[in-house]
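Shipment paperwork, digital attachment
Item: protein structure file
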Amino acid sequence: MDSLENHLLIAMPSLDDPYFNKTVTYICEHNDDGAMGIIINLPINITLNELLAQIEEDGDEKLPELAQQVLTGGPVSRDRGFVLHSPQSGWSSSLALSDDVMITTSKDILQALGSDDAPDKFMVTLGYAGWGPGQLEQEIKANSWLITPADSQILFDTPIEQRWQKATEKLGIDIAHLSSDIGHA
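Attachment content:
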């Protein structure tokens, strides 16, 4: 299977795993060692303002642009933060994932959010989703996931609660008509 980096994994309606039910996961890395992704539509009960107030000593200032929800990026390392953002260099620990998306894991980007130095578009997640060698490929064969190339509009411009539906629509599929039956031609 070709690399699924810079693709969206869309959970099939039949995927009843409590963690991945109706999720959309942006795949950051996929190779022979496994895969790593960030769930982009699973908000947790904390805003970016509240998270920054916990991190910063002087984090009392509430900025309207930082009222967005922080997301659970996945069940692994839920104490680690990840920022998916529009391209912008200059951060301590960044990796370009595509022409439209970068990921940064260093604290310096958090300190810039809400300022003129912040990337134009961003989302903050805690944790990530990980798969061992061959695990994701097996889950795809088992009909757990749909795959589509990543779309920065879905990542950054679509409201969180609409991302699963919008990602399936990108495939030209009405999610209500999907079957959980697995067929082999």
